[in-house]
């Protein structure tokens, strides 16, 4: 299907991959719901580790329309909750996965600046901006940047080349815990609606902020839309004045939150803001409380060109222009939003689906809830999910 303008706007990268058209199968060994970074990474590794098993990826929209294609592309170590037991080295694992799958990701890992308005700043901090106080560098942490469009397209290509089938515009409407598991799918092919039941031995639910009802996460996670904008290319003199000559990305450790990074073009991405707005007492990490409200929101109703979402973007643009004189008259080239899923204590959700009828079933796995740390973590845990589905590695105990 032709890709239409999205109400959330367009980020400054594209996903140059369209899956080969094939009919939906009646039965597969593994069904992956969600064609984002997690789902595609799992699909590629399932086929690499078990080439004789069939793998189907079902994406309800187009690849890249969700969080995976709209992230800012900042690769961070660990999780938003820190270095959890058994996690391992996320960035080293991420780099190894991209190399193994031969993905041209444009990954660079120069470190990430942490900025603060009140903490003890580094001596001779190259960044000194005005944003509800003086923003300065307090420390450097591991991390860097990546081109999300290239990673997403590379993972999809690697999965399909390995033999996985990827189907766009295929929404899973219901899941039946039978043996085998049954998925009821609504597929939109060239404007014509088809419905099909697919039987599968195991399922990975990697839908993140969408389909919380399907994954049973309605009361355990809270979805929001977050925003970013990109500037026109800046000169070397402007970058030096801003303190960004090192090309390190940055984020604040206090509120109001702000993050950003350089593009290859020397434009700068800045991100902040949420709809629905944040409610609660923030922890060290921005826009999150230690309890999730028992409510969810339909993020699809927001449009960055109007209403509350447009107001959030105008607020972000005003902040950017007042950060430093070098940004006062900068041209904004892109404005967009993307979904983010907040979870209890910022822990990723990585476990078997538990239901009252099937409390010990290991047929359906859930992988979601990165709390803004998903660029590297999603791909890293996608491989882990593939190993767990094949009973080659146990799931972590992070609950």
Q: Outline of this structure?
A:
The chain has helices spanning 37-49, 67-70, 90-100, 148-161, 212-215, 236-242, 307-323, 374-389, and strands at 27-33, 55-58, 74-76, 112-116, 128-130, 134-141, 143-145, 165-167, 170-176, 181-189, 192-205, 221-231, 250-252, 259-262, 268-275, 332-343, 349-352, 364-368. With 399 residues, the protein is α/β, with parallel strands linked by helices.
Quickly give the structural class.
Answer: alpha/beta
Summarize model confidence as the mean pLDDT.
92
The number of strands is: 18
Report the oligomer.
single chain
The proportion of residues in beta strands is 25-35%
For the record, the CATH architecture stands as 3-Layer(bba) Sandwich
State the distance separating the first and last CA atoms: 40 Å
Descriptive notes:
By secondary structure, the protein is of the alpha/beta class. The protein has a single domain (27-389), classed as 3-Layer(bba) Sandwich (FAD/NAD(P)-binding domain). The protein has helices at 37-49, 67-70, 90-100, 148-161, 212-215, 236-242, 307-323, 374-389; strands at 27-33, 55-58, 74-76, 112-116, 128-130, 134-141, 143-145, 165-167, 170-176, 181-189, 192-205, 221-231, 250-252, 259-262, 268-275, 332-343, 349-352, 364-368. The strands form three sheets. Strands 1, 2, 8, 9, 10, 11, 17 and 18 form an eight-stranded mixed β-sheet that branches. The longest helix has 17 residues, at 307-323. It is globular and about 65 Å long.
List the helices and strands and how they pair.
Elements: E1 27-33, H1 37-49, E2 55-58, H2 67-70, E3 74-76, H3 90-100, E4 112-116, E5 128-130, E6 134-141, E7 143-145, H4 148-161, E8 165-167, E9 170-176, E10 181-189, E11 192-205, H5 212-215, E12 221-231, H6 236-242, E13 250-252, E14 259-262, E15 268-275, H7 307-323, E16 332-343, E17 349-352, E18 364-368, H8 374-389
Parallel strand pairs: 1-2, 1-11, 2-8, 4-13, 11-18
Antiparallel strand pairs: 3-7, 4-6, 5-6, 9-10, 10-11, 12-15, 12-16, 13-14, 14-15, 17-18
């Amino acid at each position: 299907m032709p890709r239409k303008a999205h109400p959330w706007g367009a980020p400054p990268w594209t996903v140059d991959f369209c899956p080969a058209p094939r009919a939906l199968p009646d039965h597969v060994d593994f069904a992956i719901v969600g064609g984002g970074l997690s789902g595609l990474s799992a699909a590629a590794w399932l086929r690499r580790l078990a080439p004789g098993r069939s793998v189907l990826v079902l994406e309800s929209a187009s690849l890249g329309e969700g969080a995976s294609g709209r992230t800012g592309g900042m690769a961070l170590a660990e999780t938003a909750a820190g270095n959890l037991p058994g996690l391992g080295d996320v960035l080293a694992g991420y780099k190894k996965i991209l190399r193994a799958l031969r993905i041209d990701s444009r990954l660079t890992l120069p470190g990430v600046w942490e900025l603060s308005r009140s903490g003890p700043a580094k001596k001779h901090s190259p960044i000194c901006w005005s944003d509800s106080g003086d923003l300065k560098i307090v420390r450097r942490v591991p991390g860097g940047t990546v081109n999300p469009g290239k990673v997403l397209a590379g993972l999809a290509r690697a999965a399909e080349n390995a033999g996985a089938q990827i189907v766009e515009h295929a929404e899973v409407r219901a899941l039946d815990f039978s043996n085998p598991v049954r998925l009821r799918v609504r597929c939109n092919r060239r404007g014509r609606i088809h419905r099909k039941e697919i039987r599968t031995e195991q399922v990975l639910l990697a839908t993140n902020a969408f389909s919380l009802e399907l994954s049973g996460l309605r009361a355990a996670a809270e979805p929001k839309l977050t925003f970013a904008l990109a500037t026109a290319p800046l000169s070397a003199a402007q970058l030096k004045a801003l303190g960004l000559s090192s090309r390190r990305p940055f984020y604040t450790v206090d509120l109001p939150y702000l993050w950003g990074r350089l593009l290859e073009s020397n434009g700068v991405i800045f991100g902040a803001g949420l709809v629905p707005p944040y409610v609660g007492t923030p922890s060290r990490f921005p826009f999150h409380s230690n309890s999730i409200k028992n409510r969810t929101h339909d993020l699809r109703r927001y449009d960055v060109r109007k209403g509350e979402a447009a107001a959030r973007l105008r607020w972000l643009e005003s902040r950017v222009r007042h950060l430093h004189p070098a940004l006062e008259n900068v041209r904004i080239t892109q404005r967009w939003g993307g979904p983010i899923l907040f979870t209890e204590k910022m822990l990723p959700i990585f476990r078997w689906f538990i239901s009252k009828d099937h409390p010990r079933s290991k047929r359906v796995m859930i992988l979601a809830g990165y709390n803004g740390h998903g660029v590297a973590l999603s791909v890293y845990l996608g491989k882990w999910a593939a190993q767990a589905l094949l009973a080659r590695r146990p799931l972590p105990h992070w609950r």
